[in-house]
Amino acid sequence: LADAAAPAIVGVYLTEQSKRSGRRSTDLIHEALTGGLADAGLRLEDVDAYCAVVAPNQVGLGVTPGNIARQLGQPISATMVGTGAEALLYARGLLQAGTATTIAIVHGYAQSIGVGEVAAYTTPGFEFTHWTGSFTAAQFALQARRYMHEFGMTEQELAYGPAIIRNAGMINPAAVMFGRGPYGVDDILNARMIADPLTLLMCSLANDGGSCVIVTTAERAKDCRQVPVWVRGGAVDHRYTAYHDPPTLDVLQSRPKFVAAIERTGITHSDVDMVQIYDHFAIGVPMALEALGFCEAGEGGAFVVERCGFGQGCLPISTDGGCQSHSHPMSPHNHKVIEAVSQLRGTVADLCPEWESGVHTYDPALCRKVRDPKHAIACGQMTGGYSFAVLGSE
Amino acid sequence: VPETSEFWDGLERGAFLLQTCADCGHVRFPPTAMCRVCLSVDARWQAASGGGEVWSVTRVERPPSPDWQGEVPYWLVVVQLDEGAKVLGRLRGVSSDHGVEIGLRVNFAIGDPGDGEGRTRYWFTP
User: Fold this and answer.
1) Is the dihedral of CA B8, B12, B16, B17 positive or negative?
2) Is residue A65 within 8 Å of residue A43, measured between CB atoms?
3) What are phi and psi of A301, to 5 degrees?
4) pLDDT surpasses 70 at B122
5) ipTM of this predicted complex?
6) What pLDDT shows up at residue A117?
7) Percentage of residues of chain A with pLDDT beyond 90
8) A203 to chain B nearest CA, in Å?
């Protein structure tokens, strides 16, 4: 990309992702930000915009320019409440407008969960929801049941995505569920039922972790440590307030906007080498692939069975193990970007004996490396709306 | 919350109130300050007829917190009311080993659900 203001991802960092880390969110944020800057070869003084969901120290002020400037001791031009793909698209606008030159997209979240409890954010106190006994898994179970009713998707098709994704997480040493598997479709279906049709193995983790993505201009990227990964485009389409409003299938209507956005990046769907889906629940997998235009409406379930995975001619999805096996620390959107960047850089940890030298076996029992990738889609939020960014090594 | 207090007051009187836009007639729930179709801030509150059909259904087997342990399994439904708006709620009066089909006709029930909160709430029955 010749444009001097073209957005380049130059730094990524993941803290250890784990259950009950005993750490604080601020500690994870500090490690993630410091690690991301070190990966890029940049300093805090270079950062002039900041995107996050959780501020380093809330003190009632949140992710606002004044609060972030105060926390970091660094002048700040812009902030955005968000991470992952959406933040990348916002960063792209800031860079091309000249409003900012280096943007840190940072997340860190830690919590403690007692025995028999779900994470607090999955049972928010919404006025028309919380007292009914609804919670996040039930909301997506209702979405799944309606989708299956309208399009005839089977429970076996629904279980296929989690099997693919969890088997990738099984061989990712950084995954919270590393070593857990392999899972066949029957294992997914026979796991303990949470809210019909979603079994435990069709649901996200809820764990602790931090992450950071550093974005700067093509001009500045020349001086950074890493070969840049380019943000080529993408789209955001929010439609309703998940958890407050009853669940809908409205996000499938984002398809024309998303297909047009992919076309604008100058590539076609067949050029996409992987999709890092926000696989919060099993139903997110077919619905995201449909909304992105990889298959016709209603054919997501069959598409996952026939076309997704690491096989020859297949489309790899959530290659780090996704939200279900790798990590889900409340807001996992940076993870989708970081996994895409790792694949495009060729730095993928798995069970291949020489992965640290970038040598992979492509044996599905050991290897989760995508072969010679050039383009990736990293999905962002997928609750009351979907978003994604197209990333490329060129 | 000002824009929803009228709804809860209506429920205390035994009526499930929906907002109908005074300008374009769009019927909405949950309550909002503006019509999402025409952005009008003028709305009439009118009682729902009480009927609708199941748009989607799930049987919850793992409770969201230990407080709910005695309730599982229980049915949650999204109901499309005859007026068009969708409402999430419990479906009571169906045994847990019975199937609930999408499209099932259901009716509102309004009262104290017995959850110890002492609030007037709503749920559905076949």
Assistant:
1) negative
2) no
3) -60, -45
4) yes
5) 0.95
6) 56
7) 81
8) 12
DSSP string for residues in chain B = -HHHHHHHHHHHTT--EEEEETTT--EESS--SS-TTT----EEEEE--SEEEEEEEEEE-S-SSGGGGGG-SEEEEEEEETTS-EEEEEE-SS-TTS---TT-EEEEEEE--SSSS---EEEEE-
pLDDT > 50? residue A1: no
Contact B85, B29 (CB under 8 A): yes
Q: If you measure CA to CA, which chain A residue comes closest to B87?
A: A246
Chain B interface, best mutation among A127, A140, A145, by max B CB count within 10 A: A145
pLDDT tens figures, A25-34: 889 999 999 9
Instruction: Please name every residue paired with A376 in a beta bridge, in sequence order, or none if there are none.
Output: A391
CA A134 remoteness from chain centre: 24
Question: Residue B73: is the preceding peptide bond cis (ω within 30°)?
Answer: yes
In 3D space, the residue among A103, A104, A101 whose CA is nearest the CA of residue A5 turns out to be A101
Note the pTM of the prediction, 2 decimals.
0.95
The whole-number pLDDT of residue B99 equals 85
**Minimum Cα–Cα distance from A123: chain B residue:** B64
Of A357, A386, A392, A32, the residue nearest A209 (C-alpha): A32
- Interface residues of B toward A, Cβ cutoff 8 Å, are 1, 4, 30, 55-66, 68-69, 71, 74, 76-78, 86-90, 102, 113, 115, 117, 119, 121, 123
Token couple for A373: 């990738």
Enter the tokens of residue A251: 């996000």
Tokens of A335: 């993870």
| Contact predicate A352/A369, CB 8 Å | yes
If one compares A243 and B33, the residue with the highest pLDDT of the two is: B33
Which residue in the block uniquely carries the two structure tokens 């209603």?
A298
How many residues make up chain B in this entry? 126
**Closest Cα of chain A to B61: distance in Å?**
5
Q: Which residues contact A163 (CB under 8 A, 6 or more apart)?
A: A183, A184, A185, A187, A188
A141 Cα to chain B: minimum distance (Å): 6
Greater confidence, A114 or A302? A302
A348-392 residue pLDDT tens: 999 999 999 999 999 999 999 999 999 999 999 888 899 999 999
CA distances (Å), origin A290, targets A152, A154, A168, A309: 15, 16, 22, 16
